[in-house]
Design a protein that fits this description.
mainly alpha; Four Helix Bundle (Hemerythrin (Met), subunit A); 5 helices; elongated
């Protein structure tokens, strides 16, 4: 009987200690809901596309794409969404490479493709 009570006590303590309340984000770090994070990434991609249209140089566009890539790390939902996010992020990497090489037309096409891929993530939520 003592063993059963002890095991129940330990089990209940583990349940309390691992509650979602204790699983907070880092102090000072802003976390975004998945849909908001997707919209944020899409907005940053649009800024990069607009920069290409306005005649910005490749390095400036590459920096804007890097910003979108960093923002894409905020998209956290489930494994299916993460796999699709990774594929969309690869398009951003390709666009950034093209931008660094000053192949801005190719970069723009990759950015448009990436933007569509990120918007398609909403259907997986």
């Amino acid at each position: 009987m003592k063993k059963i009570l002890l095991s129940l006590l330990v089990a209940s303590f583990v349940g309390v200690a691992s509650s979602p309340v204790l699983a907070e984000g880092d102090a000072g770090r802003i976390t975004y809901p998945p849909v908001e994070a997707i919209d944020m990434v899409s907005g940053k991609i649009k800024v990069a596309i607009d920069a290409i249209s306005s005649g910005s140089d490749g390095e400036a566009v590459a920096a804007l794409i890097k910003s979108a890539m960093d923002a894409s790390k905020e998209i956290n939902a489930n494994d299916k969404v993460d796999m699709a996010r990774s594929k969309a992020n690869n398009k951003l990497k390709s666009a950034r490479t093209h931008a660094k090489e000053s192949a801005l037309q190719e970069a723009e096409q990759e950015l448009k493709s990436a933007q569509k891929s990120f918007q398609d993530l909403k259907g997986l939520l």
